[in-house]
Amino acid sequence: MKHLWRQEGVICSSSSNGGEAAPRKMAGLVTIVRPTTTDFVSPLIGFRIRSSDFGRKWRIGASSAAPGIDLKPLEAAIEKKDGEAVKETLDQLRELGWAKKWSSQPYVSRRMTSLRELTTLGIKNAENLAIPSVRNDAAFLSTVVGTTGALAVLAGKLPGDWGFFVPYIIGSIPLIVLAIGSVSPGLLQAAIGAFSSFFPDYQERIARHEAAHFLVAYLTGLPILGYSLDLGKEHVNLIDEGLQKVIYSGQLDSKELDRLAVVSMAGLAAEGLKYDKVVGQSADLFTLQRLINRSKPPLSKDQQQNLTRWAVLLAASLIKTNRGAHEALLSAMSNKATVLECIQAIETAA
């Protein structure tokens, strides 16, 4: 999802460039991920948060449900990757009074939304949300250039011809790196992703971002069958066979587009509420743009801009309203909990 994708008129008044890649085979509905170059998946790092804020583990067995509530059918449906069975089971659990947060967000029709509303809600630097971050790329390339430059200077002091050839070879490394990025962008993006893990906030950002997608999907009634925080496989799998067919046919109506837009913008919204600079927005905007392109009737640039703002606003509102569930889910996911345990974390959160 890197290089040559253009998101026009989204959130900020000017156009901004992001990345694009061929989509990963969608398992069901849509896979929310971060950007790479050759895949519809992002280079995030698998990890376990060690901060005391996220130290509690959510390893909850099925017996933790309320008395008389059997979660084994839900567990079986998730293991079978049966989206319809997961929806039906959660609907039944909600009727029994357990899955109270499942599909608890009623449909809210799209409306005109301003940047001021985003700022008032708590989104930091709302006007820059759609500008792709180059922090990780710049840090990686600067490190490569700086390190090789220093080594080349030191190698210049070697005796004889070594003092000529070695600095020449070392000095060509940045050019080789750029060449690899042009020929095989995925390799360069993987290296940048691994390097980015050294940023103090990087691991927490990933967990917060993916937990937001998971939570908002659950609140809006989209079944989750899996997620991953492993390197190159970071995503939340949302599956609805009926919607999948509609999306592939290019006949996505405005109501379903609104719901999927909110889920797509959840990760961006979660970062915007916490950090001054959003890093993982390129994939979210890319996902939304693909959904917009498959919707009927087509949206104008101004309508696309407003849809994005509105979706960020509603997603951020859901995250703030369900802050306890979001933090509990963040902790569960960072401790590699199962999907069922993540659902239990949401439902049992204060």
TrEMBL record:
One GO term under biological process is: proteolysis
What sections of the protein cross the membrane? Answer: 138-156, 168-199
Q: Which UniProt keywords apply?
A: Membrane, Transmembrane, Transmembrane helix
Recorded coiled-coil stretches: none
A Gene Ontology molecular-function term?
A: ATP binding
Record's InterPro entries?
A: Peptidase_M41-like
Which domain of life does this protein belong to?
Eukaryota
Cite the Gene3D superfamilies for this sequence.
Peptidase M41
Q: Any idea what this protein is called? A: Uncharacterized protein
Please name the taxonomic classification of the source: Eukaryota, Viridiplantae, Streptophyta, Embryophyta, Tracheophyta
